[in-house]
Amino acid sequence: MGKVRVTFLPLNKTIEVDEKDYPFGDHGLPGSILDIALANGIDLEHNCGGNCACTTCHVIVKEGMESLSPMEDDEEDRLDMAEGLTLRSRLGCQAVVRGDVVVEIPD
Ligand code: FES
């Protein structure tokens, strides 16, 4: 537990949060990329409210893949439907931040 930094591209905005403050809101898993984004004014879409039921919170992890919680089957199945899927894709509402990461929000 400690401070972690999440950088959002293409905004190039870095947010530092403390894991002890999780959760920040009620969208997505506590401490997820979505949770952190919404608490800090980052516009990450979340049509299903952070319930792993859409793909609008899709992000591409540029750095720190190992700093995120492992992917569960639900997320993997859902992610398969994401537009522009990559090997470094995650759902922002399901990926919990445990260390520094850089993520890109696709168009
Ligand atoms: S907000 Fe719908 S899957 Fe993440």
How would you describe this protein?
With 107 residues, the chain is α+β, with helices and mostly antiparallel strands. The chain has a single domain (3-104), classed as Beta-grasp domain (Ubiquitin-like (UB roll)). 13% of the residues lie in helices and 24% in strands. It has 2 helices and 5 strands, in the order ββαβαββ. The chain has helices at 33-39, 73-79, and strands at residues 3-9, 13-18, 58-63, 89-91, 101-104. 32% of the residues are buried. Bound molecules: FE2/S2 (inorganic) cluster. Residues 46-48, 50, 52-54, 56-57, 78, 91-93 line the site of FE2/S2 (inorganic) cluster.
Topology:
Elements lengths: L2 E7 L3 E6 L14 H7 L18 E6 L9 H7 L9 E3 L9 E4 L3
Parallel strand pairs: 1-5
Antiparallel strand pairs: 1-2, 3-4, 3-5
This protein binds FE2/S2 (inorganic) cluster.
The site of FE2/S2 (inorganic) cluster (FES) has 13 residues, from loops.
Keywords for this entry:
alpha+beta; binds FE2/S2 (inorganic) cluster; five-stranded mixed β-sheet; 5 strands; 24% strand; globular
Structural class: alpha+beta
User: Which descriptor suits the 3D outline?
Assistant: globular
Number of helices: 2
Rg (C-alpha, Å) = 12 Å
Low-confidence parts: none
Reading off the top of the CATH hierarchy, the class is best stated as Alpha Beta
Question: What ligands are attached or bound here?
Answer: FE2/S2 (inorganic) cluster
Q: Taking strands numbered 1, 2, ... along the chain, how are they ordered across the largest sheet?
A: 2-1-5-3-4
